[in-house]
Amino acid sequence: MTVMQDVKSTDACVAGINCCSNTANSETSIDKSSVCMNPSSTSNVLYKPSNYDNWESNFNLCKQIDIEFENLKYIVRKFNFHERKFVTKEILHGINGAFRAGELTAIMGPSGSGKSTLLNVMTGFRATGVTGTICINGDPISTNSPSFRELSCYIHQDDLLRPLMTIGETMMLAAHLKLGFSTSKEYKQNLIKHILALLGLEHRYHVFAGKLSGGQKKRLAIALELISNPPVLFLDEPTTGLDSSSCSQCVSLLKKLASLGHTIVCTIHQPSALIFEMFDKLYTVVDGSCIYQGPVRELVPFLEGQDLVCPSYHNPADFLLEVAVGEHDRDLVKLINAANKKYHEDADNQQINVQRLLSRIKSKDACSKIAGNLKRFPNVMSKLTSFDYVKPAADEVALEEVKSLNASVGTREKLDDKDCDACPTGRGKINGRRSTAYKALHTEQASFIMQYFLLLNRIFICARRNYFLLLARLMSHIVIGLVFGYLYMNVGDKATTVLGNYVYLYGTILLLVYTGKMAVVLT
């Protein structure tokens, strides 16, 4: 079932993931051409240029992605030297869950519970030993496939930034690599200004990355990924090592990006009460199992239903971690079963609500109510078009009615003619029955040769600005030259001195080669 979602801005378009079923492995590969950028634009770049007063509209997605996983397991196999045999250990124990578009989801749990492992599995960094089903908008997909990686990004906990490059230079290098040279430099500069304005880094444009604070480095790492505007962002503990103010700014930024339609999933260890309330959904992992998943506001009632009363003066996040480590003498198996039961009940209730809407959509009054509540249920339109038993003709009429009523109620989820063409009931094809032509995400990235010269230029810039390294290399050449000159002075060219000349030439060549390599290694 492919879920089509409407978007929030008239600059965006509704598009679907054009999936091709693979009967051999029951997986679906995502074609990167299935995500369109702007149907009315002739360029294949991601954002539509606009004035700076409306820069947030540049980050609206024309395709929102929901991720669901079921019975997900991760097993590692290592050789035990003491027992002289291979042993297996299960890290993730058949967990279920979903990450929705437009929501900021936090994966929380004590140290060693499997938070980062789950994130690595979802991003495809852990592929061997993974079993279970991972679906993108209802279609099974392999997360380590290149097509999925083009639709997602993974921001690690450690920021690998070049300290001797400015923010502007770092962003421009990333723009050249991701957008290629078919996009004009002026457009890239405007795009970079838009991104830095969104992240509050426009006043640090000419500052070296090494002089940024911890929070600014986190925002710069996010800015580098926003150049390609991926629908899905995974972050590994983005608030680690930051003070409370920087943590609040970082999570607020992620919240803003989620409101623009991104699917944002991040791991977090122990947030404060203020930061904890900023998250939309919570996914708690303990020893590779889930003990709670759902809205943050429903955490306390869920715990109360399990005879775990959180004191009013207590941070719910801290109380949940105390329960996870066993401080309140609660059987975690019961919590795991309760969490799984809640997950399936929520899924069934959502299915029932959609079926009720389907039974009423032929009524214009019902369409008016649905259109008036689109802001409350942003995924309704996508689910209404995903059922096979809906007649296309009736569905198209209903969509046209909802579209006309949408304009009157003034909600942000407006459908235009291009949107209807991209829906499953239009002239497209979903799940192997129809096909819709979409513009490529990034059809022309930097070629291998251009990547080589871009990275070579980065090395030259960093080496030129590292004055200490340049001085050290110069002094080492002078000292070694004096030593070699003193040792091999007046050696001559006789046959008895051939070995000495050979050693001299060999040492000189090694010196030139390895000192040249050290510039690359150190920068």
In short:
The protein is an alpha/beta fold. It contains 17 helices and 12 strands. Strand 6 and strand 7 form a beta hairpin.
β-sheet strand percentage:
15-25%
Strand order of the largest sheet: 8-9-10-5-11-12
Terminal Cα span: 48 Å
Largest sheet features:
6 strands, mixed
Compute the number of helices. 17
The helix content, as a percent range, equals 40-55%
Query: Structural class of the secondary structure composition?
Result: alpha/beta
Return the CATH topology of one domain.
Rossmann fold
Examine the secondary-structure arrangement and name the CATH architecture of one domain.
Answer: 3-Layer(aba) Sandwich
Q: What's the SSE pattern?
A: EEEEEHEEHEHHHEHEHEEHHHHHHHHHH
The CATH superfamily of one domain is P-loop containing nucleotide triphosphate hydrolases
CATH C-level class of one domain: Alpha Beta
The shape, in one word, is: elongated
> Roughly what is the average pLDDT, rounded to an integer?
74
Structure summary, number of beta strands: 12
Ranges with pLDDT <50 over ≥5 residues? Answer: 1-55, 381-443
Rg, Å, rounded = 28 Å
Describe the model.
This protein is an alpha/beta fold and 523 residues long. Among the domains are: 60-151 and 230-334, 3-Layer(aba) Sandwich (Rossmann fold), CATH 3.40.50.300; 160-229, no CATH class; 466-522. The chain has helices at 115-123, 146-150, 167-179, 185-199, 214-226, 244-259, 273-278, 299-305, 316-324, 332-360, 364-372, 380-384, 392-409, 417-422, 448-465, 467-487, 498-522; strands at 19-22, 27-30, 67-80, 85-99, 104-108, 130-136, 139-140, 152-155, 232-236, 263-268, 281-286, 289-295. The strands form three sheets. A six-stranded mixed β-sheet has the order 8-9-10-5-11-12, with helices on both faces. α5 packs parallel to α6 (244-259), α11 (364-372) packs across α13 (392-409) and α16 packs antiparallel against α17 (498-522). The longest helix is centred in the middle third of the chain and has 29 residues, at 332-360. It is elongated. Residues 1-55 and 381-443 have low confidence and may be disordered.
